[in-house]
Amino acid sequence: MIECDGQIMLIDAGEKQYGEKVGQILKDHVGSRRKLDFLVISHPHSDHIGGLVEALNSVSSIGATLSNTDYYDSEVFRQVEHQLGTLGSRIKVPDVGDQYKLGSATIDVIDVASNDPNDSLVIMITYGKNKFLFTGDIEYAAQKRIVEKYRNDEDKEYKIDLMKMPHHGSSGESNEHDSDLYSFVRTFMPDYAIISCGAGNIYGHPHQRTLDILNNKAYSAKIYRTDLNGDITVKSNGKEISVQTTK
Q1: Burial of 18 (0-12, 13-18, 19+ CB in 10 A)
Q2: 190-218 pLDDT, tens per residue?
């Protein structure tokens, strides 16, 4: 959940069993206004949209719903579509390069592909001098596309402050794709890396290769993980950011 100047954005909502918790967080922040200004669905897998049906009971309207696709053949996606309809909202698939405003923050659409299973709507949020990159579950193909977009002749990084790491800290499908994640991190050089993953998950997220890349002395990103740190709250004044955790 992202808040700027009283406006609220929600990106995904976890599996179905987490909908109530996400809904409570929304309820605490939207107040009597009960409006969600932006809903961002990174992609329609159940571990990203399953909690939306319950969570959206906490709001009475949605300004805009953005996703990388407006169709997916699953029961949970149909339930989310129905819930959106009751709130007067429909999914819009934006174009790469589209911009939106969340209060005084700017939202840039970086990637919108839906060809590969884990392709996602990728957005960059800029507030003052601080930049935050939200990557969904993108894997090596999308990472490579984004790297090519931001690469420059001087080989200078496109510096950001915080990256929500792709695909729960996965390092890719095999060792041969290590270089793609390496290039992705190298391109943005985040000061902070946030990894959302369940404690003791069966996928081994985050992968050790991902942690090794982030711990490279050339990067030395500060890593926060939901499995170890619990809820993670990041605050920005437009110049500096601070991080608080529940663990």
Answers
A1: middle
A2: 999 999 999 999 999 999 999 999 998 88
Sheet order of strands, 105-111 included:
99-102, 105-111, 122-127, 130-134, 162-164, 192-195, 222-225
Give the contacts of 47 (CB within 8 A, at least 6 positions apart). 14, 15
Helix spans in the chain (H): 19-30, 46-49, 52-55, 75-86, 140-150, 178-188, 208-214, 226-229
Query: Tokens in use for 105?
Result: 């923050």
pLDDT at 237 (0 to 100): 98
* Total Cβ atoms within 10 A of residue 199: 9
pTM for the predicted model, two decimal places: 0.95
Q: How far is CA 173 from CA 51, 126, 143, 225, in A?
A: 27, 31, 13, 21
Type of residue numbered 220: S
- The residue to which tokens 């507030």 are assigned: 127
Confidence of residue 154 (pLDDT cuts 50, 70, 90): confident
Paired residues of 222 in beta bridges: 192
Q: List Cβ neighbours of 147 (8 Å cut-off, separation of 6 or more).
A: 180, 183, 184, 187
Peptide bond into 190 cis (omega under 30): no
Q: What is the predicted pLDDT for the residue at 179?
A: 66
Inform me whether the pLDDT recorded for 135 exceeds 60.
yes
**Structure token pair of residue 93:** 């698939």
Name the β-bridge partners of 193.
Answer: 163, 223
Q: How far apart are CA 78 and CA 80, in angstroms?
A: 5
